[in-house]
Amino acid sequence: MSARTVDWAAFRAPRGPAPSPEGLRERKKRAMRRQLTDTATEMFLERGFDAVPISEIAEACGVSEKTVFNYFPTKESLVLDLPDTVMAVLRTDLAEPDRTPVEAVLRILAEDLNAMISWLEAQDDKAWASAAVRRFSLLIMSTPSLRAHQREMLERLIAVAAEVLAERAGLGPQDPEPQIAATALLGLWPVQLHAWGKYLDGIRTPAQVRDAITADVHRAARLLETGLATFADNARPPNATDTAVRT
Fold first, then answer.
1. Exposure check for the chain: N or C terminus, fewer CB within 10 A?
2. Contact criterion met (CB below 8 Å) for 65 and 80
């Protein structure tokens, strides 16, 4: 592995809130999770995701295969993960009555973006840091099972969003309005991911990258604002009289 290491855990998922104070046992668990994911990601980047078996990752970390699976249920989750804390943040922010659904998702994405930009700004070699992020993105895009896992993560976020939006509007989570609203809202996440690949070129400064990514995400969000800003008012199902009039 490279003498300069990357905290690959920072790239694996949208960020949740800062962890609460931990005891020794929790700190050891967190350290082991980081060792496993950082070691695995470096090995995947060097040789390819499919070429590295779990047994080699376990051996490199001095643990058993069972221990690896105790921390990560699948090989893909060593690279991409969706902690419960992220789901909780999405649920809480979307339920906030003083914030529109679009504003809630933009806030979450902005915090995620700012955390990554802060990491880039902290690196002495900005070009190397940008290349590291591009290598990670290429690993995902070039590995079908990782792309599928990323889509599954997005679907889980959409399901949570649909539940909250349905509750806000007095509907069921399987009704068409919260389903399409949640799908559209969470579509902003891949917009931000794709923008990373577009603007992280090793030439732009971290601040310029942040501004360019933010501009793309907000362009996409403007398409959603009109319909979703008044979601609760517009999402009432038609009553029998309305249906009769239309027919």
1. C
2. no
Burial of 40 (0-12, 13-18, 19+ CB in 10 A): buried
Q: Provide the pLDDT for residue 3.
A: 36
User: What six digits make up the tokens of 202?
Assistant: 């090793």
Binned at pLDDT 50, 70 and 90, residue 85 comes out as: confident
Give the distance, in angstroms, between the CA of residue 99 and the centroid of all CA atoms in the same chain.
Answer: 21
Measured in degrees and rounded to the nearest 5, phi and psi for residue 96 equal -65, 115
The pLDDT of residue 12 is 55
Please state, in angstroms and rounded to a whole number, the distance separating the CA atoms of residues 171 and 136. 40
Residue type, 112: D
Q: Can you give the pTM of this predicted structure? A: 0.80
Q: What is the pLDDT of residues 105-146, one digit of tens each?
A: 999 999 989 988 998 898 888 888 888 888 898 999 999 999
Do residues 100 and 28 touch, judged by C-beta distance below 8 A? Answer: no
Q: Which amino acid is at 178?
A: P
Among 142, 140, 137, residue whose Cα is nearest residue 150: 140
CA 232/CA 245 separation, integer angstroms: 23
CB 41 within 8 A of CB 8: yes
The answer to whether 157 and 87 are in contact (CB under 8 A) is yes
Name the burial class of residue 21, with classes exposed (0-12), middle (13-18) and buried (19+) by CB atoms within 10 angstroms of its CB: exposed
The amino acid that residue 27 corresponds to is R
Contacts of 68 (CB under 8 A, 6+ apart): 36, 54, 57, 58, 61, 78
In this predicted structure, what is the pLDDT of residue 201? 86
